[in-house]
Amino acid sequence: MPHQLTNPMIKEVSGLFIALSERSRLKVLRTLLDAKGPLSQGAVAKASGLKQANASKHLAYLVRAGLASREPEGNTVYFSLVMPLVGDICNLVCGHVSERARTTYKSLR
Amino acid sequence: MPHQLTNPMIKEVSGLFIALSERSRLKVLRTLLDAKGPLSQGAVAKASGLKQANASKHLAYLVRAGLASREPEGNTVYFSLVMPLVGDICNLVCGHVSERARTTYKSLR
DNA sequence: CAACTCCATAACTCAATACTCATTCAGAAT
DNA sequence: ATTCTGAATGAGTATTGAGTTATGGAGTTG
Description:
The structure is a homodimer of 109-residue chains.
Chain A: H1 7-19, H2 23-34, E1 39-40, H3 41-48, H4 52-64, E2 68-73, E3 76-81, H5 84-108
Antiparallel strand pairs in A: 1-3, 2-3
The structure holds a DNA duplex (30 and 30 nucleotides).
């Protein structure tokens, strides 16, 4: 039975998609997905190619959105993914995108 | 086996999420999801509460993004959803959002 | 204490885009 | 042909948010 996209839900769904719609944020998410455990902000920044301040903002954003968790430890702050949903969506969408890419490729030759 | 979020994929995935991240567009999508068959632009505008020009733009956007299809017929233009993915994502995300809402509610009382 | 590292934040610039209004266009009907 | 309806488009406005730079704060190490 499909879930209903009720009016009050639209705001939240939109927020979630906005969080997932920014390239830099997707890179951060991928980094956190790839890493099995928590990563320091510096590690995330380096791995995703973002500058420190920018990575800081995006990580804060993801925490606010409930997608990542923040755990300070001494001097450094460790982040990790919270929602299994992220992986699920990623599989769904990535699968679709690569499928569409294949189709487009076929239709072009 | 999970799909990989490769670098070239990020751009497309981002584009898809951007298309899905705008409230008005979500309303249009919901309208098209609810309707079993194609809807004229006017019908979409009315059902989603958007003005004509705005609905026109968002529908054009969705067609460009490959999420909807456009079929002129006489004077009016009919739109329908293209990707089954939209429904799948919607189910996934809506389920999560309502679950999270329940949890929040519980933790608040 | 001083120097250093890691992170957060403020101020700013710049680009993107949602929305509205007005106009234009195409097809249909009279 | 004129009129009417449904849809697309352009101009203009306002808002939003990403990125950078620079600075400050908290913790660590010498």
